Structure formats: structure tokens, C-alpha cells
């Protein structure tokens, strides 16, 4: 049983645009993180079946985390 935090990390990287008139000057990747979630992932990769308790918000981030952690 793992009780703790699960967060959504946003990794943003700037880039030099090929077209200087563009407004897209980089990209963002969403990565699940948090100490408890990382520990649960490591345990499952080692063959264990961890159970995790964490708070989730009723928003896009909570939906994203729930979809990728439960599936």
C-alpha cells in the first residue's frame, strides 16, 4: 500500500522556429510524476502488484492521471 502524491509534470522545451512568424515556439510534454506514483511504477516493474491511494482533482489533470494510472 502506497499513500502519497501523484502530480502531472509539464516538460516544456523552447525551439527556434523555422518560420519567425509562427506563435508556436516550442512544445510541451505531459509526464506523470510524484513520489508515490514513481514508487508504485518501480514496484510494478519489479513484478509486485502495488496498491496506491492518492487525491485526484476533477479536472483535465485528474482525468489524465486516472486514465493512465488505471489503464
UniProtKB/TrEMBL annotation:
GO terms for molecular function: kinase activity. It comes from the Eukaryota. The keyword Disulfide bond does not apply. PROSITE patterns: PFKB_KINASES_1. This is Carbohydrate kinase PfkB domain-containing protein. Keywords: Kinase, Transferase. Coiled coil: none annotated. Residues 3-64 form the Carbohydrate kinase PfkB domain.
Amino acid at each position: 500500500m502506497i499513500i502519497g502524491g501523484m502530480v502531472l509534470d509539464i516538460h516544456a522545451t523552447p525551439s527556434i522556429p523555422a518560420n519567425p512568424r509562427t506563435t508556436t515556439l516550442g512544445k510541451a510534454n505531459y509526464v506523470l510524476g510524484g513520489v508515490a506514483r514513481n514508487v508504485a511504477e518501480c514496484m510494478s516493474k519489479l513484478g509486485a502488484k502495488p496498491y496506491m491511494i492518492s487525491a485526484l482533482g476533477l479536472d483535465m489533470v485528474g482525468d489524465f492521471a486516472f486514465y493512465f494510472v488505471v489503464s
